[in-house]
């Protein structure tokens, strides 16, 4: 009786995947071996104000007046957007 490699692999996988507890235990062991568990914060240091969350940095674009929500104000006084440079005709 000869068994080829593919049949042997399939039989092995069927055997391994038949036990859900074994699959979960192996997965948990792999994850634990690859990543460190999160450490506890040091007890001697106080937390920063706001629970350590920093405020969002201000936008680099200055606002010019009050625009409605979702509207952008035009940058040019005439309201036009700047287009590509015009071609020179020779």
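Sequence proposed for the structure above (90 residues):
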């Amino acid at each position: 009786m000869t068994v080829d490699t593919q049949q042997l692999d399939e039989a092995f996988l069927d055997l391994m995947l038949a036990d859900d507890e074994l699959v979960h235990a192996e997965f948990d062991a792999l994850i634990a071996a690859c990543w460190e568990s999160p450490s506890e914060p040091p007890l001697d240091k106080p937390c920063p104000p706001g629970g350590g969350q920093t405020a969002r940095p201000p936008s680099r674009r200055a606002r010019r007046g009050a625009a409605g929500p979702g509207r952008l104000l035009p940058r040019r006084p005439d309201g036009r957007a700047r287009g590509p440079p015009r071609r020179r005709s020779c």
